[in-house]
Amino acid sequence: MNVCVVGCGYVGLVTGACFSEFGLNVTCTDRDRGRIEDLQAGRIPIYEPGLSDLVDRSCKAGRLSFTDAPDEAIRAGLVIFIAVGTPSADDGSTDLSFVEAVAREIGRNLDGYKVIVTKSTVPVGTSKKVRGWIEEELEATGKKTHFSVVSNPEFLREGSAIGDFLRPDRVVVGTESGDHQAEAIMKDLYRPLFLNETPFVFTDVASSEISKYAANAFLATKISFINELSILCDDVGGDIQGVARAMGLDRRIGSKFLHAGPGYGGSCFPKDTRAAAHFVKERGRRFEIVEAAMAVNGRQLDYAVEKLVLACDGDLAGKTVAILGLSFKPETDDIREGPALEIIRQLLAAGAQVRAFDPHAMESASNEFPEVTMCKDAYNAAEGADVLAIVTEWNEFRALELARLREVLAAPKFVDFRNVYDPESVRAKGFEYWGIGRS
To answer: Which residues sit opposite 389 in a β-bridge?
Structure first.
């Protein structure tokens, strides 16, 4: 089976590489010629554990290729995945201009039956729009060609995307009513996962489109809930980690996403919660739980900055803050809407200087904040700083040499936004310590 993936960003590249691992012939295409040239030369534009090896192996086996000529790739594929960006507009709605452009391109090149699969995260009703855009192009060229439109949302976590694709919790496939041909092709496409007894959800298109927003909105709400509890723990002297463990042992709740911190970020949760709230509002209703989660997340970031203000004796002006971790989570170089970015913005606005280190995200962060000093390691970042803050819980930050840090810091002040360290152990090394929801 020949597969075409349009869009060589995070989702498209992982999707194409993993389908080629299944033994399928995959062509990934993108209008960004520079990106395609990098991929053809073996240079992976994103950091994702295992992705470089997977791409290299599949390219050498002849199952995976890259081109900046989408017309040819579309005509050669039986299944066409739309995996382009769907950024947020200013009002929280989803910008579908890239999806529309691809759909119209598909329509101009449709030369026989194909399955058009929306992999990008899109609002409910987008698949109908995709069908309409393709049909408009077919009508303009006078062609009459049968095709199917399918929704197959991605549930990839940055930092573990390869495992999520090859060993997923579930695969969701939404097909148009009575389209048994498309369903059969999608089953064939995912045959290795069927053999592994992966749970599949075959449903209608609208339900499939809703499922991605529902999952992300629920997880974002769970994070905001534990973060709001962390403030209560600070107020009354509780330990948020003990509370989270007590909650998580209830099988109805589970322990995942019950880790207090400075708030959620990344390419999915902020965008998808805004989009879900906007979509419901357009229909004359309110998604009040999601709106509350968004409000709590913004407040949590402010609360995190208040910890730094407290550590700097109430005034950030002229102080130097060492930030460890710039990506929104470990094992990715993605800084989009990460807590570190907003914390740094507020620090700079208050007159503080910032020194920072991240294992993989410094290049993109330096483009965002040229005034921030990017450092070679955690100890270099701490040199001369008035306070040290762990913002992203990279593994290499879990066993820092506290004695060495105290030597290079201007003041022994330690703000642990991810509750990585035991407070008493840090204080025993002569530090003042602030966590989130624990004293």
So the answer is: 323, 415
Kindly name the residue from 4, 18, 28, 268 that is annotated as catalytic.
268
Residue 387 tokens read as: 């306070």
Of 436, 431, 370, 382, the closest CA to residue 408 belongs to 382
Query: Which residues lie closer than 8 Å to 43 by C-beta, 6 or more apart?
Result: none
Q: What is the mean pLDDT of each run of 10 residues along the chain (439 residues)?
A: 95 97 96 94 93 96 95 96 93 94 96 96 95 96 93 95 96 96 97 93 97 96 98 96 97 96 94 94 95 97 97 97 97 95 97 98 96 98 98 97 97 98 96 95
CA–CA distance, 434 with 310 (Å, rounded to integer): 9
CA distance 150 to 131: 10
Give yes or no for a contact between 134 and 168, defined as CB atoms under 8 angstroms apart: no
**At CA 338, angle to CA 334 and CA 92, rounded to 5?**
100
> What secondary structure does DSSP assign to 341-395, as a single string?
HHHHHHHHHTT-EEEEE-SS-HHHHHHH-TTSEE-SSHHHHHTT-SEEEE-S--G
CA angle (197, 191, 146) in 5-degree steps: 135
Q: What is the pLDDT of residue 439?
A: 78
Give yes or no for a contact between 153 and 212, defined as CB atoms under 8 angstroms apart.
yes
The reply to whether 233 belongs to the active site is: no
What is the model's pLDDT at position 153? 96
Return the closest-CA partner of residue 68 out of 43, 97, 41, 37.
Answer: 37
H-only helix segments in 49-94: 51-60, 70-76
Amino acid at 410: A
Helix (H) or strand (E) holding 428: helix 423-428
Cβ-contact 130, 99 below 8 angstroms? yes
pTM of this structure = 0.92
Show the domains of the chain with their CATH numbers: 2-198 (3.40.50.720), 239-434 (3.40.50.720)
Sign of CA dihedral 213, 162, 327, 59: negative
Neighbours of 2 (CB within 10 A): 14
C-beta of residue 61 within 8 angstroms of C-beta of residue 53: no
How many other CB atoms sit within 10 Å of the CB of residue 286?
Answer: 11
The three-class DSSP label of residue 421 is coil
The H-or-E segment that residue 305 falls in is: helix 288-311
